[in-house]
Amino acid sequence: MKSIGLILVAGGSGSRMGNTIAKQFISLKSKPILQHTIDTFLSWNKDLQIVLVLPENQFDFWNSIKDLDRSSSYRLCIGGKERFHSVQNGLKELSEVDYVMIHDGVRPFVSSSTLDRCLNALSAHDSAIPVISPSESVRMIENASSIHLDRSKIRLVQTPQCFHYKKLKEAYDCSYENIFTDDASVFEKAGNKIHLVDGNIENIKITTPEDLVWAKTYLKRTNA
């Protein structure tokens, strides 16, 4: 049995939500979005080693939330200036494991099937990145104009982004660059190959009021 670490990155401020509460703490069906995400992973694998990365000034608020299921153990870790630094910090807090999954704390609807595909892919590849195909046409801005792109060759990237622990830790032994928009970009810059797997369309990142409306409707429809 391979050991798995999970780094949950939750550094949102809630500004795009127009809310005074950080988005990861907004309530869905009486518990915070972040707790839904934790529960999703623990229902898939209760033996995960979890590191929860939050801004330091949110620790007390998180710990003060009543009625959370705190039966699962996890380490709290201080977030950094950029997501890159938050993951770097999380990796330092994680005890050595075989595989590591990096997931956005406000993506509570990743499916067990997606997680299974990621885990299975790691038996043959150094990375497993869940993606979905765009349904809209795609254009790329170039100079003062735009050009059409073949959407059949485009994939939208989700999380958890999954890796062999030692290789990812080596990849993160570097300085931040603007091109590092996710963990796959850091891993690729270090000379590693990226392997894609099918994600699930429900695995959205809840960042806007419209996302929140969708999430509430989804929970009601699925009785989750």
CATH superfamily name? Spore Coat Polysaccharide Biosynthesis Protein SpsA, Chain A
CATH topology, anyone?
A: Spore Coat Polysaccharide Biosynthesis Protein SpsA, Chain A
Q: How much strand?
A: 15-25%
Shape: globular
Stretches with pLDDT under 50, minimum 5 residues: none
The CATH architecture would be: Alpha-Beta Complex
Average of pLDDT: 93
The secondary structure category is: alpha/beta
Q: Provide the number of structural domains.
A: 1
* SSE sequence, one letter per element: EEEHEHEHEHEEEEEHHEH
In total, how many beta strands? 12
Radius of gyration: 17 Å
Percentage of residues assigned to helices: 25-40%
Topology:
Elements: E1 4-9, E2 27-28, E3 31-32, H1 33-44, E4 49-54, H2 59-64, E5 74-78, H3 83-93, E6 99-104, H4 112-121, E7 127-132, E8 138-142, E9 145-149, E10 156-157, E11 161-164, H5 165-171, H6 183-189, E12 196-198, H7 209-222
Would you write up a description of this structure?
With 224 residues, the protein is α/β, with parallel strands linked by helices. It has one domain: Spore Coat Polysaccharide Biosynthesis Protein SpsA, Chain A, CATH 3.90.550.10. It is 30% helix and 23% strand. It is built from seven helices and twelve strands. Strands 1, 4, 5, 6, 7, 10, 11 and 12 form an eight-stranded mixed sheet that branches. Strands 2-3 form a two-stranded antiparallel sheet. Strands 8-9 form a two-stranded antiparallel ribbon. The two termini are 29 Å apart.
